[in-house]
């Protein structure tokens, strides 16, 4: 019997040793170099410096850097999973995006501790370019994210001329600030659509001509849904709180819950159109909603035409 127990123990140790290292999330320090994460048919791998294609199903990004950045690639039908844990990344010194996503798949970012992303001209703080969803979550309820876009970039969403679409926030304390012409969350000098907030504390401020949540300059804000959480959306000069940027319309906006405070910029609606933009198909069926337009802008509806 004793001999069998020894063999059983050895078999368990051998099995544990054969398990892929990806079962354990590894910390990657951004100070050690650029980080690239790729999720494809072969799983998820991380590359940094001399380490290439290291299997890791949930890399944890830590540390501080004013030179290095993170690139997340999610291939079609795949989801890249990444945790930001006290990461402070400033891409503005080299004119880069602090964190960018590409590919046709989905990207899921978990927040742990205080994280700050700042990007350079033409880039969003957290720049979404992947074709699928970008989901920001805080399962442990201890995460914060401050994201600041450069000129023409959203805080979270599109870069210059980039549409910020397919963005979901389920939790965390989020502060997203657009650069000039960019939305806080949504388009970077472009449209912002398919944006959902279902939890957390979200503070989104547009740059000049950008909405707090929705479109950047000359960009519409559409298909925006808020079901829960505390949301404070402030449009930049000429941008709606929630909806269109300057010249942009705000439509298909649905609020069913949460505490929502939306303040429009000059000539813009709190919820609806930016300056010289219309607002339509706006539905508020629940929650506590306060919407204030800027000078000559409606609380809910259109901006000055």
Walk me through what this model shows:
This protein has 305 residues and is mainly β. The chain is 6% helix and 45% strand. It has 1 helix and 30 strands. The protein has one helix at 2-18; strands spanning 27-29, 35-40, 43-48, 51-55, 60-62, 64-65, 70-74, 79-85, 88-90, 99-102, 106-118, 126-128, 134-137, 143-148, 156-157, 164-169, 173-177, 185-186, 192-197, 201-205, 213-214, 221-226, 230-234, 242-243, 250-255, 259-263, 271-272, 279-284, 288-292, 300-301. The strands form 2 sheets. The chain has an 18-stranded parallel β-sheet that branches. It is elongated and about 60 Å long. The N and C termini lie far apart (87 Å).
Write down how many β-strands occur, each being a DSSP E stretch of 2 or more residues: 30
What would you call the shape? elongated
Helix content: under 10%
Specify the structural class. Answer: mainly beta
Low-confidence segments: 1-23
Largest sheet: number of strands, sense, barrel closure: 18 strands, parallel
Number of helices: 1
| Strand residue percentage | 35-45%
What is the average of the pLDDT values? 93
What is the rounded distance between the termini?
Answer: 87 Å
- Compute the gyration radius: what is it? 21 Å
């Amino acid at each position: 019997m004793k001999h069998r127990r020894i063999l059983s123990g050895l078999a368990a140790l051998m099995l544990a040793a054969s398990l892929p290292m990806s079962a354990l999330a590894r910390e990657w320090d951004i100070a050690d170099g650029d980080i690239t994460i790729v999720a494809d048919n072969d799983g998820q791998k991380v590359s940094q410096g001399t380490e290439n294609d290291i299997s890791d199903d949930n890399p944890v990004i830590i540390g501080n850097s004013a030179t290095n950045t993170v690139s997340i690639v999610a291939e079609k039908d795949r989801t890249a999973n990444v945790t930001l844990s006290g990461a402070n990344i400033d891409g503005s010194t080299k004119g880069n995006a602090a964190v960018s996503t590409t590919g046709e798949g989905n990207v899921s970012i978990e927040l742990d501790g205080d994280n700050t992303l700042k990007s350079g001209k033409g880039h969003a703080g957290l720049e979404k370019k992947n074709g699928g969803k970008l989901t920001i979550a805080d399962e442990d309820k201890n995460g914060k994210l401050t994201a600041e876009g450069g000129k023409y970039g959203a805080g979270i969403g599109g870069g210059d001329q980039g549409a910020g679409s397919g963005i979901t926030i389920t939790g965390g304390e989020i502060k997203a600030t657009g650069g000039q012409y960019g939305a806080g969350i949504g388009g970077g000098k472009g449209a912002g659509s398919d944006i959902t907030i279902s939890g957390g504390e979200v503070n989104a401020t547009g740059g000049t001509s950008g909405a707090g949540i929705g479109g950047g300059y000359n960009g519409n804000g559409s298909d925006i849904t808020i079901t829960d959480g505390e949301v404070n959306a402030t449009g930049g000069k000429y941008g709606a709180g929630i909806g269109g940027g300057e010249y942009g319309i705000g439509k298909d906006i649905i609020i069913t819950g949460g505490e929502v405070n939306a303040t429009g910029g000059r000539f813009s609606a709190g919820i609806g159109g930016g300056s010289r933009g219309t607002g339509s198909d706006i539905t508020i069926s629940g929650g506590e909603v306060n919407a204030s337009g800027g000078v000559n802008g409606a609380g809910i509806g259109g901006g000055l035409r």
